Amino acid sequence: MRRALVIPLLSAIFLAVFLSSCGKKQEETTVKIGVILPLTGLQSTFGQSVRKGVELALEEINRAGGILGKQVECIIEDDESKSDEAQTVAMKLITKDKVHLIIGEVVSSSTLAIAPLCQRYKIPLITPSATNVDVTKTGDFVFRTCFIDDFQGSALARFAIENLKSKRAAILKDVKSDYSLGLASAFANTFKEMGGEIVNEQAYTAGDTDFRTQLTSIKASDPDLIFIPGYYTEVGLIIRQARELSIKAMLLGGDGWDSPKLIEIAGANAEGTYYGTHFSPVEKEPRVQEFVSAFKKKYNEEPDALAALGYDTLRLVADAIKRAGTTDSEKVKEQLASTTNFPGVTGDITIDENRNAQKPIVILKIEQQKPIYFATIKP
Amino acid sequence: MNIFIQQLVNGLAWGGIYALISIGYTMVYGVMQLINFAHGDVFMAGAFAGLVVANLLPNKTSFPSVVLVFLSAMLFSTFLGILIERFGYRSLWRKKAPRLSLLIVAVSISLLLENGGLFIFGAAPRSFPQIIPLKNYSVGGILFTNLQLLIILTSLFLMGILHIIVMRTKMGRAMRAVAEDSEMSALLGIPRERILSFTFALGSSLAGIAGVMVALYTPQINPLMGLLPGLKAFVAAVLGGIGSIPGAMLGGFVLGEAETLVSAYLSSSYRDLFAFLVLILILLFRPQGLLGKGVVEKI
Q1: How do beta strands A168-174 and A357-358 pair?
Q2: A–B: how many Cβ contacts below 8 A?
Q3: B17-34, pLDDT tens digit by residue?
Q4: CA of B8: which chain A residue's CA is closest?
Q5: How would you classify the pairing of strands A168-174 and A197-204?
Q6: Residues of B in contact with A260 (CB under 8 A)
Q7: CA-to-CA distance for B99 and B222, rounded, in angstroms?
Q8: Residues A317, A327 contacting (CB under 8 angstroms)
Q9: Chain A nearest C-alpha distance from B71 (Å)
Q10: How many CB atoms are located within 10 Å of the residue A283 CB?
Q11: Mean pLDDT across the stretch A180-209?
């Protein structure tokens, strides 16, 4: 009885899938790009920002006539900020929608989950913002358009020595975060190589709220700069408590600082601190200003770093497909790998031999409760 | 040497806070033989009551509004403490339920308050408005802020008042009598349940004030902030000798200082580890605590 029902049902499903995939193959009039983002769940603010950037780029590309005479179609999938869900939607995009390329994910853990799939099915994967070193080590089909933690740490050390003339630095890192530890060790290595001295290294744990003990020790070793590679929640409190203990040293951090919340928490104490990030909406460069005004027109808000990365990623992909002259994944992959000096709004992007983006870091300085553009550190 | 003293000053503020919270544990244990694990969350509720009131006030930094924030936190947590006792523990207590049931209720109330807080305020940390503008003082190279001073002085002052209440008033005498022998005190006409209620109110009001002080000191609060300080205050109470008020104060200050020194001279990652190591060692080698005697007059 039961089996009698199952077999026709299954064959019906197979037939439906078969017919629909046949149908799609015949009318391949668009360039299909899958986008996997955390649109809901824990990282939803990141996912939403990237989606806005991608959709703005899509609109511009299609208005200019698309790629290879075809319109571009983005199939955007939500993985609910879960890496197993990311794998499910990646399989769907590859096998059912037959996309030519996938953009995603936003965070490193989910990107690491889908990278082996894309490698196996030979679909190029390009992530706008996963900074973990291992992501692109998966294989030659995996790329990224952001810088990696190692690069960011050492670029910030160069900035500390060359621009801020720092000689004695202290580090206060979050022992619970790979991001923070990676940045801290890259910073320390470059700082020492360039003749600086790390005078003190202290640790905290994400979720702590009182850092006076560590800061008192740091103060005793009299550094001229404190490097704090962490996320804005704790960093805001650290900045505040450092100034309370009348620590005069310069304070420097990475893209984990990049949130209006930081200034809200630290208040006036954040004055004169520096951090590195991917993008600044106040940079004077014309292509940045064009992007910012187009973004404001469409969404009625300022683009953040992730929106800019999403925008750059789709445009870089379109450029690579254009150069390849085909949507064949092997050829697109080769063109992605040989991208040099692509003019993005997050700086000129060059893909290196490890498929990571070589690009400048923007340094912002907080002045009068606002991050302002301070410098660009070239790779 | 300066740095060492500076670290001691940093530790003193946390010591005062732990002491204030641990008094609540110790008093409730004294009269009821119950570890009220919801006590840390009463501390959290006090901080949030302070936040709500502080956000409503137009002129946050004026003296009356500071007093109002402290007062409302104290009243709210007192009220919460009385509610917990009345609806959580009293009927079990009347029925002479096993102490395990009371403990389970305590843990449930704690989870209820935490998740209720998450439901109302969300998980994202809230920054507490700076209702007391910060001032730095320096004495012989040792820095301290008006907040640290406020925390230490307020906690010492409140403990002084508590001492007077327990030792000099009729209510305090009744509390001590219930702690000494609950059955006998009931036979002699002491309204036992009213005393219980009073004990909860007193302990919770101190926790509420501690909540606002932490909120001002760090200055960031979230619905789970009561968990760790609550457990540590419990450790402090055991360290000093549970049931003993001077013991709770001593335990609080010792734990605050010890934690600060551990994190200053070893690593901050060992801070929490150390606190609970202390608990285990004390229970192994001196279960009655530092100031506890074999059989102690509790409260």
Answers
A1: unpaired
A2: 54
A3: 999 999 999 999 988 888
A4: A213
A5: parallel
A6: none
A7: 31
A8: no
A9: 24
A10: 18
A11: 93
Judge whether residue A24 has pLDDT over 50.
Answer: no
> For B218, which of A205, A209, A245 is closest by C-beta distance?
A209
pLDDT (0 to 100) of residue B183: 87
Average pLDDT over residues B48-58: 93
* Chain A hits for B219, Cβ within 8 Å: 237, 240
Q: Has the ipTM of the complex gone over 0.90?
A: no
Average pLDDT, integer, range A165-192: 92
The residue-averaged pLDDT of A89-98 equals 94
B268 and A267: CB-CB below 8 Å?
no
Instruction: Report pTM.
Output: 0.79
Please enumerate residues of A whose Cβ is less than 8 A from a Cβ of B.
175, 202-205, 208-210, 212-214, 216-217, 220, 233, 236-237, 240, 244-246, 264-265, 267
pLDDT at position B71 is: 95
The pLDDT of residue A47 is above 80: yes
B133 CB within 8 Å of a chain A CB: no
A313-369 per-position pLDDT tens digit: 999 999 999 999 999 999 999 999 999 999 999 989 999 999 999 889 999 999 998
Cα(A34)–Cα(A37) distance, rounded to whole angstroms? 10
Confidence of residue A2 (pLDDT cuts 50, 70, 90): low
Distance CA A67, CA A327 (A): 10
Query: Are the Cβ atoms of B268 and A240 closer than 8 angstroms?
Result: no
Who's near A373: CB < 8 A, 6+ residues apart? A280, A282, A283, A284, A362, A364
Chain B's closest residue to A241, CA to CA, is B218
Give the list of residues 6+ apart from residue B21 with CB closer than 8 angstroms, or none.
B39, B40, B43, B206, B207, B210, B229, B230, B233, B236, B252
| Contact between residue A228 and residue A172 where contact means Cβ atoms under 8 Å apart | yes
Contact A204 B7 (CB under 8 A): no
Task: From chain B, pick out residues whose CB is under 8 angstroms from the CB of A233.
Answer: 125, 220
A276 contacts A375 by C-beta, under 8 angstroms: no
Q: Which residue of A has its CA nearest to B124?
A: A233
Q: Among B7, B267, B269, select the one facing A216 at the smallest CB separation.
A: B7
Cβ–Cβ of A245/B264 closer than 8 Å? Answer: no
Crossing angle for the helix pair A286-299 and A305-324, nearest 10 degrees?
Answer: 110
Q: Please give the distance of CA B96 from its chain centroid, rounded to a whole number.
A: 27
Residue B188 has φ and ψ, to the nearest 5°, of -85, 5
Q: Can you give the length of chain A in residues?
A: 379
